[in-house]
Amino acid sequence: MSKQRMRGRSTYAAQIRYRATTPATVRSMVRSRWLLMGIVVLGLACTPQAIPASDVGEARAILTTVLDAWQAGKIAADLREQSPPVYVAEESWENGTPLLSYELLDQGALHGTNVRFAVTLRTKTAKKAARQLKAFYLVTTRPALTVARADR
Q1: Which has the least CB within 10 A, 12, 40, 45, 114?
Q2: Cross-strand pairs, 140
Q3: What predicted TM-score, i.e. pTM, was given to this entire model?
Q4: Which residues span the domain enclosing 121?
């Protein structure tokens, strides 16, 4: 190899080394290391805490309150405005299906942090005929009061 060609390579390598150690590049590397350390520390400090299981007796009372309100012709938004608010996710109720009657089929069983209930619902269809169906609800009492249809 000729000296000129070798000089060209060594000059190029020196330029690359110089670019890699410019103050802006060094600052960028330091910032990225601090950011990575911050993410690791934040991840370790913010480990999720266990949510306590819902109370079965309280869940039963909440479900009864919700189904009584539906049967009385109220809307789900009324329950959100009371204190404490109860958040309800029941598609049939939101669609305007009237509830004629209901029957709780069990005492409720823990299902994770929720309480699961089996309920027989008698609703009125669009043709004014009564329809009976079995539904399952998940009720949460902590951290918020929620009732959600579990079989949809």
Answers
A1: 45
A2: 146
A3: 0.67
A4: 56-149
